[in-house]
Amino acid sequence: MTDDMFSRVGSLAFFAGLTREQLRALAGAARPVSYAAGARIFEEGETADRFWLLEHGTVALDLQVPGRGAQVIETLAGGVVLGWSWLHPPYRWQFGAVARESVEAVAFDAGPVREHCDADPAFGYAMLRLFTPVITARLHATRLRLLDLYATAAQAGQP
Amino acid sequence: MSTSTAPSAVSAAVPQPYRVVSRRVDTADTVTLELAHDAGPWPAFAPGQFAMLTAYGIGEVPISLSGLPDPDDDRARRLTHTVRAVGAVSRALHDTTVGAMIGVRGPFGTSWDVGSAEGQDVVVVAGGIGLAPLRPVLHAVLAERPRYGNVVLLIGARTPADLLYPDELLRWGAAGVQVGITVDRPADGWTGHVGVVPALIPIARFDPARSVAFVCGPEVMMRFTAQALRDRGLPASRLRISLERTMRCGAGWCGHCQLGPLLLCRDGPVVDYALAEPLMKIREL
Fold first, then answer.
1. Which terminus of chain B, N or C, has less C-beta within 10 A?
2. What is the number of structural domains in chain B?
3. What is the CATH number for A59?
4. pTM of the full predicted structure?
């Protein structure tokens, strides 16, 4: 880990509230990455061995649908977390991810982070407190979209 | 919001005949109509206000102004309304042809009070047809561009084909407006955002301490948008929404559009969120 990476991780708003030691543990598992527009970051079903903090650019989450190809489920833009399947067994991506445009991010290796979570419950709890709101927000967004709010009554299948 | 100028008794109660002078198809179920009348005083509509439009022989519906008339320019003395066909009356208005007559009562209700945002960033968030009442806000701000800070326009639509005013979106973007668009259901080839419009708020560039937000769309969308704006630090007192209930008389006489202590045809449709929020939490109000 370099001091640069420690500073970079510490500057990410997502990690505000972590202690210096916790930031140091995360920075030890971090490295800068970039993806060109169109690059696939991960494929549905692969081992979920990382997560990312997107700094710039947009990523599309997609799902392969037989006969329809890759269907975009949601897009994520700068400042947000990409990937939480690394948190729970079976550690497999449920969706794929593709860079919609040039992406700059910090990638974290899941293995060392999980080990640190197991070894230090305070660190593990801090990570859960960071990731739970992300999961909740995306659940809320999914529920909103299920309502099909912009549909007419006819489009929504109502009489 | 601003208090509206009360319409005269005649314009409030009697539909005035207006001729359809242009009809532009926006989407599969939405058109924008320009209406003109030859005689009588020009009604002083402000952005955010609405008119009761009559499809003769069928009925009357409230439709917000979707353009900015210029009372000093005879050629611009036109009312602009964007109409989505969702019921019998709006379908009849949607299907009308150039040269046909439509009845107009109004103006009614409160305005966005765009001028109160001078010197500050302007955040406009629209869901679906909710962009129509907000379009005059963009026109007013861009007409006086140096008076405002950053201008952000965030739009949520069902599909890319449902996006209103695509040509204008490009022009607004070229004029320096940060335009963010997200759809629920992307079509093949769509390269923009996918998801709900509140998700765009964290990445929009505005200073929440010196911004005014104008929001219009389905009520649930406005609640979640308001929450996202407040999470960014925008106070409820700097957030205005446009509410809708069953408007009938348009002048606060009949009470059909009551929302708690408000009669939305008179005290709305534009309401400060600080006032609206507790009312929106009461089920079936």
1. C
2. 2
3. 2.60.120.10
4. 0.90
